[in-house]
Design goal:
Layout lengths: L3 H8 L15 H11 L4 E5 L2 E4 H17 L7 E5 L4 H12 L3 E4 L6 H10 L4 E4 L1 H4 L8 E4 H9 L16 E7 L7 E6 H8 L12 E4 L7 H10 L4 E4 L7 H11 L3 E5 H11 L8 E5 L5 H10 L4 E6 L9 E4 L14 E2 L3 E6 L12 E7 L10 H7 E3 L7 E11 L5 E6 L3 E4 L2 E4 H8 L5 E12 L2 E10 L7 H9 L10 E4 L33 H14 L17 H15 L5 H6 L3 H12 L7 E5 L2 E9 L10 H6 L4 E6 L2 H4 L8 H12 L7 E7 L1 H15 L3 E8 L11 H16 L1 H11 L4 H11 L5
């Protein structure tokens, strides 16, 4: 029924799959071409060390030569169980150079799941390191530990790669995703899909001056974009040093390495915007996705990051990371959802009804994907492949992938995501088939029936909840269900809560009434133990606020209460901000109760966070007042004032950053103000700000207020006092010059400072302080 013009628009005009990339080239071939162009450029950075493109290529050639000596079968599948390191990147390149297929292994998965994946992929060799080999002891095949082979590899030729014929249609890697039948499925991705993703892309701009951060787990297909987006374009790839990022540590790496292109899951993006949006300032192009983006967070990020382009990226693993992308305009309507955009290079999409006819603009239908990004199917699972890969009704001989996603075209040609047609969900960026969890529950004999759902009882906090009806007299406990699932599911798939029912509520026609399912109560200990110390009381308050659970006892387990990685990051940030105690993610996994954390700190193992903030007067933490130090660096000057102020606000003093770190690289008042904004946002992440300062502190307060306002925040009190005035000292010629100088700085701010620096040459704040000390020693 579609008019010919609209049909042409849907199938042709809005679906132009541009092929501006070398379709017949392979990943390792394009890398070797880049090596020839820029052999001495830095390719990979791992903490304080780096490899040039030539060095990386040489070491990959040496490992590839060793692979050839093992007499492996053609197109061998090689599992990679290596942490983020040079060895990881060398291993991937070497596998591709010998025509192999790499199978990424997430070492945090349960052994049963890893064993099933390696068996399904029919892996010939397992590539790992000695420390990780114990986690993979179940594997009975050939195991290669790269650290143990280092001396042997150093003797092999590295000047050329093995001569192996590889085609663009051959497999590059197999990535396992959650399966609706209770069994993970391996997605087979060819070289061509990766090449189309990162060479001359139309959704992001990449050049050899860019710096990528490799943050995604290797088993997550965002790593495909990070690794090959950098190495096939001559850019620098920085390996993130920790397994799980915190806002502060992520910001440190972004600034230290000047990262220009970054991929974040929607959940981590939202967390960074809430907690430390200024930490994203170095990034020029920020891609996010894996779940629906919050318009509120996007709007805040656009205001705070004027030099950054935000891109919403959408795509299933079956179509090699990205299918559609949307560059978010700065004037976007934040009352509407954010579209997933248009198809990227080499990709065409169709929105079809149940009879595989295209639906009109504005009408919902299922999204089907075709083109060069399409995976070849699920490894050794022809029936499941046939269910998802169908004959393309518009291009004879081609295939389309049925995503199960319900979308619609908007009037401007962008696509809007509406939801799923099945039980697949996205939790914190991970794709999860609820059927896989239910399949595992069905194997527990003590359960009569079960149902797994996703609830969002708090905004932007999705959690998996299991409802189960035990067999009469079975005596099953929630701990039994949790332990049974722990043995076979990765941590990101573990339910946050379990609800045992005598029977499921039913609708009038006999179906389970999902709306009538009771809200879960996240499990606490049967005997609530109250906090014993002031530290435990404060920890309880933090946990209850972030977990949304009341009451919490000191022996309640964080993960049994519904905790997950993103909540862990939030709680650790609150502990550091409020209590000035630092705890790592790994320590929280080892110390999952308040009593354990309290004992850890009481034994003298705590580490104080290095901060410029000093709490001078307790009060309402939601609306604190901040006083910035004067030129002498100390905030003791403000103590008499603080004692006399009658205000419910908490009052903080900001000591000089130079006192905390005499070698700090801060070079300007703008930089110092930006640094102090990051400090105060550790205490107050949102709301209206109150800032004050005396003399030089007033200048910094003014610049902080300007930057906060520019970022979209509200400053309800800006207090500037002890400013130069006529009379006395200021009547001298030197004093008059200082009066004019400081007046210009206060009234004109950075523009005057910039012109002064241009005239006199760039001076650091340390030099300014030295000059003032020399002329006015009494100020110190």
């Amino acid at each position: 029924l579609l008019p010919a013009r609209e049909r042409h628009q849907l199938l042709e005009t809005w679906n132009d799959a541009t092929l501006d990339y070398p379709r017949e080239a392979c990943i390792h071939e394009l890398f070797e071409r880049q090596v020839a162009r820029t052999p001495d450029a830095i390719a990979v950075v791992c903490e304080t060390q780096h490899l040039t493109y030539a060095e990386l290529n040489q070491r990959a050639n040496q490992l590839a030569s060793y692979f050839q000596s093992l007499d492996m079968p053609p197109a061998a599948r090689i599992a990679v169980g290596v942490d983020r390191s040079f060895d990881l990147i060398i291993g991937l390149l070497a596998i591709l150079k010998v025509g192999g297929t790499y199978v990424p292994v997430d070492l945090s998965y349960p052994a049963d799941r890893l064993a099933a994946m390696l068996e399904d992929a029919d892996v010939s060799v397992l590539l790992t390191t000695t420390p990780n080999s114990t986690k993979l002891a179940f594997y009975a095949g050939r195991v290669l530990c790269l650290d143990a082979l280092s001396d042997r590899l150093a003797t092999l030729p590295g000047d050329r790669a093995p001569q192996v014929e590889v085609r663009a249609s051959d497999l590059a890697y197999i990535s396992f995703t959650s399966g609706s039948t209770g069994k993970p499925k391996g997605v087979c991705v060819p070289h061509r899909g990766v090449v189309r993703l990162v060479i001359n892309p139309n959704y992001v701009s990449i050049c050899d001056r860019d710096v990528f951060l490799q943050l995604a787990p290797i088993s997550f297909d965002a790593a495909t974009f990070e690794i090959w987006g950098a190495l096939l374009n001559g850019a620098k790839l920085v390996l993130y040093p920790d397994p799980i990022p915190t806002p502060e540590s992520l910001a440190d790496v972004l600034h230290a390495e000047e990262v220009s292109i970054l991929w974040l899951t929607a959940g981590l993006f939202h967390l960074m915007v809430d907690r430390f949006v200024a930490g994203l300032a170095p990034v020029k192009q920020l891609l996010s996705g894996g779940d629906v983006l919050s318009p509120r967070h996007v709007k805040k990020a656009l205001l705070a990051l004027p030099d950054c382009t935000l891109i919403d990226g959408y795509g299933p693993t079956e179509n090699t990371t990205f299918t559609c992308c949307y560059t978010i305009p700065r004037d976007f309507d934040s009352t509407r959802s954010i579209p997933i955009g248009r198809p990227i290079n080499g990709t065409h999409i169709y929105i079809l009804d149940a009879a595989l006819y295209p639906v009109p603009i504005g009408v919902s239908g299922q999204l089907y994907i075709g083109g060069d990004g399409l995976a070849s199917g699920y490894f050794n699972q022809p029936e499941r492949t046939a269910q998802r890969w169908i004959a393309d009704p518009f291009t004879p001989g081609e295939k389309l992938y049925a995503t199960g996603d319900i979308v619609r075209y908007l009037a401007d040609g962008n696509v809007e995501f509406l939801g799923r047609s099945d039980g697949q969900v996205k939790i914190r960026g991970f794709r999860i088939e609820l059927g896989e969890i239910e399949g595992r529950l069905a194997q527990i004999p003590e359960l009569e029936s079960s149902l797994t759902v996703v609830r969002e009882d708090s905004p932007e906090d999705k959690r998996i909840v299991v409802y189960a009806v035990p067999v009469a007299e079975a005596g099953v406990a929630i701990a039994d269900l949790r332990n049974a699932l722990k043995e076979c599911l990765p941590s990101y798939m573990m339910p946050s809560a379990y609800v045992l029912l005598e029977r499921f509520p039913l609708t009038a026609n006999g179906k389970i009434d999902r709306k009538a399912l009771p809200a879960p109560h996240y499990q606490t200990t049967s005997t609530q133990i109250s906090p014993r110390t002031d530290l435990e009381k404060q920890l309880v308050r933090i946990w209850e606020t972030e977990l949304g659970t009341h009451p919490i006892g000191i022996d309640d387990n964080f993960f049994d209460l519904g905790g997950h990685s993103l909540l862990a990051v939030k709680i650790l940030a609150e502990i550091e901000t409020r209590l000035h105690l630092k705890l790592s993610i790994n320590q929280l996994f080892q110390l999952p109760t308040i009593s354990a954390i309290s004992d850890h700190f009481s034994q003298g193992k705590e580490t104080s966070r290095k901060t410029c903030l000093v709490l001078m007067k307790p009060g309402n933490e939601a609306t604190p007042l901040f006083f910035i130090h004067a030129i002498g660096s100390s905030i003791l000057f403000y103590q008499p004032l603080v004692e006399h102020l009658q205000t419910p606000r908490a009052i903080y003093g900001i000591q000089s950053a130079f006192l905390r770190d005499p070698h700090t690289s801060i070079q300007s008042i703008e930089d110092l103000s930006r640094h102090y904004i990051q400090e105060i946002q550790q205490v107050q992440s949102r709301g209206s700000y109150a800032i004050g300062g005396s003399s030089f502190g007033g200048l910094v307060a003014y610049e902080m207020a300007r930057q906060l306002t520019q970022a979209g925040a509200t400053v309800d009190a800006l207090i500037l006092f002890d400013r130069p005035a006529p009379g006395g000292y200021y009547q001298s010629s030197l004093g008059q010059r200082y009066q004019r100088h400081w007046t210009h700085l206060i009234e004109e701010g950075p523009s005057y400072l910039a012109s002064t620096i241009k005239r006199r040459g760039k001076s650091t704040l340390a030099k300014v302080r030295a000059n003032i000390r020399q002329n006015h020693r009494n100020l110190d």
